[in-house]
Amino acid sequence: MRKKITLACTNCHSRNYTTDKQSQKSERIEVKKYCKKCGSHTLHRETK
């Protein structure tokens, strides 16, 4: 079963993206994505 998660910017902490992942994985996802608020590509981490 896949679990829906939210990705938040590490600079401004705005929650920009949603995605899903395997529920068996315990690691947090870190992806470099574009943040509209910052205006640049920043690291986005999975939030609780």
UniProtKB/TrEMBL annotation:
A GO term from the CC aspect: ribosome
Key word RNA-binding present: no
Molecular-function GO term, any one: structural constituent of ribosome
Residue ranges of the TM segments: none
UniProtKB keywords: Ribonucleoprotein, Ribosomal protein
InterPro entries in the cross-refs: Ribosomal_bL33, Ribosomal_bL33_CS, Ribosomal_bL33_sf, Ribosomal_zn-bd
GO terms of biological process kind: translation
Family per similarity comment: Belongs to the bacterial ribosomal protein bL33 family.
NCBIfam families (alphabetical): PRK00504.1 (NF001764), PRK00595.1 (NF001860), rpmG_bact (TIGR01023)
Protein's name according to its UniProt entry: Large ribosomal subunit protein bL33
Organism whose genome encodes this protein: Halalkalibacillus sediminis
